[in-house]
Design brief:
CATH superfamily of the largest domain: Carbon-nitrogen hydrolase
Protein name: Carbon-nitrogen hydrolase family protein
Helix content: 10-25%
Strand content: 25-35%
Shape: globular
CATH architecture of the largest domain: 4-Layer Sandwich
Number of domains: 2
Number of strands: 15
Order of helices and strands: EHEHEEEEEEHEHEEEEHEE
Keywords: Hydrolase
Structural class: alpha/beta
Radius of gyration: 18 Å
CATH class of the largest domain: Alpha Beta
InterPro entries: C-N_Hydrolase, C-N_Hydrolase_sf
Family: Belongs to the carbon-nitrogen hydrolase superfamily. NIT1/NIT2 family.
GO molecular function, one term: hydrolase activity
């Protein structure tokens, strides 16, 4: 059995705030040029070319309505990057959103780790995964989140088989982010898609990594690039069952008689009884 997911990672410069006409044309053109693709992923703040959060609006505002309609009209899963969300508490969040082919908002995730002190958005307080019908479960992270291993680890524990890390990095540390994308895929045995903005808002170098850490597709610092591929989410189960390189089975590390490992940093513990990830191995 195969759960084949055709997807496209779109490395492109950001649009001016509120410029949904240009974004709509961009998405429509991509669905014509890549007719079998079911998931389109764009970079962080792709709809917010300006650096400040002045364009923030409530999550259920006019932008959300237009994006729901766009995904529904085209019948695709649409991850338009992240947007500036003005929360009910009056704070501004950097929020990744995803829309389903039925024209509904399937997920929203507030960036937990803003890049301090440069980013002034408020941090989110929870991890988010969502189910893509017949394909599988997907987790969301935004840019600097990838530097904190707890984020991808929790998404994998919640059952994510693919992690979408939408990025807007114009700085030299993109080199390290490429290493982190592979490392997060390896230690959690998941697909990782790291989608960076193109110049002038980012320096590109987007990539797609498989559950063994192999790079399936990678772009350069091009002004625009589309990485398209077909990934089989059943590969996640195979790698976790037989091990990375037929050796390492990190999600089956603990035995039933092993004692809990205290984690003083978190004021918590790794409990063998709850270590197994969600999905076929049981839900947390």
């Amino acid at each position: 059995m195969s759960r084949a997911l055709p997807l496209a990672l779109v490395q492109a410069p950001a649009h001016a705030p509120g410029d949904l006409t240009a974004f709509t044309a961009e998405v429509e053109a991509l669905t014509r040029s890549h007719p079998v693709v079911r998931l389109l992923v764009f970079p962080e703040l792709h709809l917010c070319a300006t650096d400040g959060p002045d364009a923030a609006e409530p999550l259920d505002g006019p932008c959300d309505k237009a994006l729901r309609e766009l995904a529904g009209d085209l019948g695709v899963w649409l991850a338009p990057g992240s947007v500036y969300e003005r929360g009910e508490d009056g704070r501004v969040y950097n929020t990744a959103v995803v829309y389903s082919p039925e024209g509904r908002r399937a997920a929203q995730y507030r960036k937990v780790f803003p890049w301090r002190p440069y980013e002034t958005t408020a941090p989110g307080d929870r991890f988010v995964v969502f189910d893509m019908a017949e394909y599988g479960r997907v987790g969301l992270s935004v840019c600097y989140d990838a530097w904190f291993p707890e984020v991808t680890r929790h998404l994998a524990w919640m059952g994510a088989e693919l992690v979408l890390n939408v990025v807007r990095t114009p700085t030299a540390d993109r080199e390290q982010e490429l290493v982190l994308a592979r490392a997060n895929a390896i230690v959690n045995q998941v697909f990782v898609a790291s989608v960076n903005a193109a110049p002038p808002h980012g320096i590109g170098r987007s990539l797609l990594v498989d559950p063994q850490g192999r790079v399936r597709a990678e772009s350069g610092g091009d002004p625009r690039a589309v990485l398209s591929d077909v990934i089989d989410l059943d590969e996640v189960d195979r790698v976790r069952t037989y091990g990375t390189a037929a050796l390492n089975r990190v999600w089956d590390q603990f035995g039933e008689t092993d004692v809990a490992l205290e984690l003083p940093l978190y004021g918590g513990r790794i409990d063998p009884a709850t270590w197994r990830r969600a999905g076929k191995g049981g839900r947390p």
